Hints:
Largest sheet: 8 strands, mixed
Bound molecules: aspartyl-adenosine-5'-monophosphate, adenosine monophosphate
Structural class: alpha+beta
Distance between the termini: 59 Å
Helix content: 25-40%
Shape: globular
Amino acid sequence: LRAADVGKTVVLNGWVNTYRAYNDQIFVDLRDRYGITQIVFEADDPSFKLAPEIRNEFVLSVKGTVRERLPGAHNPKLATGDVEVKAEGLTVLNRCPTPKFEVTEFPGEELANEDLRLEYRFLDLRRPTLQRTLAMRHRLNQVIRAHLDREAFLEVETPLLGRSTPEGARDYLVPSRVTPGSWYALPQSPQLYKQLLMVGGYDKYFQIAHCLRDEDLRADRQPEFTQLDLEMSFVEIDDILGVIERLVGDVFHQCLEVELPAAFQRLQYADVMAGYGSDKPDLRYEMQMVDLTEEARLSSFKVFLDAVEKGHVVRALNAKGAADKLSNTDLKPGGKLAEFASRYGAKGLAWFKVEGDKLASSIEKFFPGPVQDTIRQKTKAQSGDVLLLVADKEDVVAQTLSALRSHLAAQLKVCVNWWDRKAEYEKQLQEEESLARKKQKGKPAPRTVEPFRFQPRDFALAWILDFPLFMWDADEKRWVSNHHPFTAPRDEDLHLLESDPGKVRAKAYDLVLNGYEVGGGSIRIHNPELQERVFRVLGMSAEQSRQRFGFLLDALKYGAPPHGGIALGLDRFTMILAGTTNIRDVIAFPKNQKAKDLMTGAPAGVDARQLKELGL
Ligand code: AMO
Ligand code: AMP
């Protein structure tokens, strides 16, 4: 309801957000999906007698007349803030005990404990933030469907009960009652079905698909999550990247009114690993790692010399201008940053402060002048910078410096998330308004705070290309697929498949957004002999691959077109569109970190009779 509705008789149904009772008036803020409206019960109306029993979260149906608020009582923060509804009839549709936590959100105030909110998810879902997020997710799905329909894709559903298609995680298994002792696997992704659809002649397929993986959970991982799954025939890498660039551009345009570049930057796996120590670097800011192994070799610092001796590496990050922001508590041995680094396996964290054209540190004396000069040049060090160094095995150094990079970017405010900027803007706006209202006795104030706008560097998208096809699994002592076993090797590396598998690059690509892997895919193998060769490198005998993947090998023999595809993680995508870092915020009924649904109690026991029927 807006000012234009003044004079109308209306019926509003909703939940009591807040109520304030006075002698002659009772104010109720009624909430529904569309917002909050102020209702006034006045002593002259029979509904006034009912109103005192109203409590938070009661469900009301209110009949009344829309009227303009009194001068000074307008609320510019509410979309409905110019009007109120004078009640002329009230039905209490349902009551509610005092909720275990406040559904009303107060800016700047922390939410109740997440486990409690997950237990009462139906209440938590009433929070405007969650409602906005789920509406954003709905919008995303609509944009995807309309866009891919325009590009002639067909939406096809694939089964939930199937055979296991390995993606590197554990399967959720479902026992068969009809065939005792046999099991279905819930899909980790529709990977093989979509490839079979290509063999079936559906050359552009997509699906918004549920995927299930029994893996350890993190802030950006759920056991059950959703992919935009897509596959195309007769394509090369560029075709797939192009479809996704157009689609993601459309999503950002329609969901956030942000215009992305027509093509995303393309980076080599080897380069990002060397520069950022991660295959999903946050590219909203620079701060690359610099290799100083040679300089360490020329020093007399024992820790570094021992490391170099063992074939380890020494690498550094330059925290620009951090000298006056990092204190001794951060830098000292065993201090905050060293403690952080140790979580990733680093045994210590060395540092230099750059003072003019000198390096200052307790270990500076071990580095000859010319070596210090090279270090400054290589790290592009300027006065006021702090260099942070780790010596260890290459993977430990990469993991540590990659984590330290994000940690420092947040601590030093090198990179501020757009939603934090937006929250800051809203806080300023509120302060300004309340100040101005005091001064001007309630009249709305002219705004001086700059309105919130997205900046180009709020979103950094990049393709990571040329992943290795295999990785060495040291525990199992065998080669494993980096993506999955159906990914095609690059043609020019084919001759290395058996002789040097580690050197073979894949026709695979990941999409990275603000440090999250939001998608991944590849061109697939469509030749049955090549597929069998890859299975062999993975340690599968001919019988084993026939037994597990006979249907795929057959399909490839029966005229499989060249094909490829990709899957976008829609939960992670929504997280970024909605401005949260918690994947549970974008899923209506998520599981907690232990894969439990705290509301329904799943997973839970079942009747002995059910187990007996299943032969368990
Ligand atoms: P992949 O395993 O890389 O590829 O998954 C694609 C994308 O799905 C998202 N994702 C997850 N999101 C939330 N919770 C999880 N547990 C989770 N696991 C993955 C990520 C990831 O980039 N079949 C292939 C795709 C293909 O080759 O076409 C596949 O599933 O954003
Ligand atoms: P120490 O000689 O043990 O007092 O260490 C001197 C400095 O080197 C301290 O700041 C340590 O944190 C740091 N250091 C120790 N081991 C490493 C390592 N593997 N990589 C980087 N710095 C280290």
